[in-house]
Structure formats: C-alpha cells, structure tokens
Amino acid sequence: MTVKDVAKELKLDWHAVKALDKEYMQEQLRRNPVSAPRAIGIDEISLRKGHTYRIVVSDLQRGRPIWYGGEDRSEESMDMFYQWLGPKKTKKIQLAVMDMWKAFEKSTTKNVSGAAILYDKFHVIRHLGDALDKIRKMEYTRLSGKDRSYIKGQKYTLLSNRENLTLNGQKALKKLLKANKRLNAAYLLKESFGQLWSYQTEGWARRFFDNWKNALKWQRLEPYEKFAKMIERHWDGIAAYSRPENKVSLGFVEGMNNKIRVIQRKAYGLRDEEYLRLKILTCMLKEI
Predict the structure, then answer these.
(1) Would residue 44 count as lying in a domain?
(2) Could you say which of 215, 218, 220, 251 is the most buried, measured as most Cβ atoms within 10 Å of its Cβ?
(3) φ/ψ bin of 184: left (φ > 0), alpha (ψ from -120 to 50), beta (otherwise)
(4) Is 215 a domain residue?
C-alpha cells in the first residue's frame, strides 16, 4: 500500500504517515549497520527525466544496498562512496560489479587498487539488444512492401527472450526470422552470446568470443561489428567473470537493480529525496 492509501485507511494526515514510515526505515538501518563488503555492485539511477543522477552501491554477498548518494555519476561522486565507507572497510573489497561507465572504474581502481572489475552481464547484453534494434531499423528502411510488413511493429518480439513471448509472439517471431535472413542471423548471434558467461576459464571464454566475432564476417551487420569492438576494449572486465574468485549471482544483481528501479519509478515527481534514499537502502532488509 502507498502512504496515501495507508493515510486514507487509518484516517490520518498524509504527512504524519510519511513521517512514521521514515522513522521506521531509519530504525531498520540503525539495527542493520553496514559491514565491510567483499563484493559490491555499482549502479546509477536518474531522479527525474533528464540528467540528474545518483549512485547506488550494494553489498552483493549480504544482498542489500548500502549507499545512495553523489551529485551525479562522475568519478568525484563515486569517490564519495569510498570516503563514506572509510579506508579500513574499503580495503576489504575484492570485487566491484558495474556497467562500462569509465568514471566508476577510474574511481574504484584509484580507491581499491586490488579489486577486480567485473562488467555487469545485463548491461553488456543491453548494448547487444540496442545493436539488434539498429539492424531491425536498417532492414525496415532498406525493404519495401510485403518484406517490410514482417518487420513493422516487431521490436518487442525481436528483443524479448523467446520464453517470455506469448504464443502469438512466438509465431510472429518465427515468421519474421523466416522472411528476413539478415535479422535471422543477427537474432541467432544475439541468443548465443550469453554463453560467454558460462565458461570456467578465460581461455575458453576468449575462444568462444573469437568464434562469435568470426561469424560476423560477410553478414553485413555493422552495429554488431561496433559491439564486438566495444567488447574488445572492455575484455578484461568481462572475462573477469570466468575466474572462480569472481563468481557472484548476476541474476541477483539484475533482480536487485530492477527492484531499485521500481522504487525509482514510483518516486518520480517526489521532492523528498531523503525518503527515496531510505526506501532504496531498506528495500532488501527484514521487517522489524
């Protein structure tokens, strides 16, 4: 229930209910002090439509957000987290999971020189999805008539996981891939790329990626070629997952990020940022 719903149900002032909610969450945080994290997840959220960002850092082993702050998504704002955590606890960090935003990496490398950097799988896959959508648009522009009609309105069908599609969606996907060889090749390459994170050694992961990259030859899939170059530039942070000491549940990371984004969406338009901060920091804590 929302604060407004509770206030209506209990016939209380909206501001009084919100104040009680804030006190409750503050007590939750007091009872659950932050311990030194071994593995952290770094993500950013936008407060409003535009470019107002805050950084959220989570303890991946304990499964909870531990810091919300910064003034934007700059290196200086990321430094604020390590200053807040303190040198003693910061030294305990062995792994930092993040997207491919240079400011986060530079700050982490500077403040925790011994920590491994791991790029979040779901952010990488999102870049691949964007590349596939560009190919879809290119094909739509290139074709006409019946060939174009198969592509129109099929963005969701093409970018979704097959198992998430309805029966009609699966039929539409099958028809689309049968009608367009280039989209079919691009789709199969996208579906296979997730296998990269299944290898136990960097050597096997590298062999898979080289084979995937070689499969692009003669396909005329320019957005994928650009994606492959991006992977090359960030290879160390992607291959880091193949090392046993860097194994974290990437599904959990994505699940927690999604939960934070649901809170964020509900908070659009709210002016009380402290309330949003408390909501995020307590979203994975047990009720008192």
Answers:
(1) yes
(2) 215
(3) alpha
(4) yes
Domain count within the chain: 3
Task: Tell me the one-letter amino acid at 211.
Answer: N
- For 95: left if phi > 0, alpha if psi spans -120 to 50, otherwise beta; the answer is beta
Query: How far is residue 7 CA from its own chain's centroid?
Result: 34
Cβ-based neighbours of 69, under 8 Å, separated by 6 or more = 54, 55, 77, 80, 81, 84, 277
Q: What is the pLDDT of residue 13?
A: 65
Q: Is the pLDDT of residue 25 over 80?
A: yes
pLDDT in tens, 114-169: 899 999 898 999 999 999 999 999 988 887 877 787 788 888 888 888 888 888 88
Side chain identity at residue 140, one-letter code: Y
**Structural domain for 26, as ranges:** 1-33
Q: What are the tens digits of pLDDT across the range 27-82?
A: 999 999 999 999 999 998 887 666 788 999 999 999 999 999 999 999 999 999 99
Contact 98, 42 (CB under 8 A): yes
Distance of CA 287 to the CA centre of its chain: 26
Residue 158 inside a domain? The answer is yes
| Whether residues 115 and 254 fall in one domain | yes
Kindly report the pTM of this predicted structure.
Answer: 0.84
Residue 91 and residue 171 in one domain: no
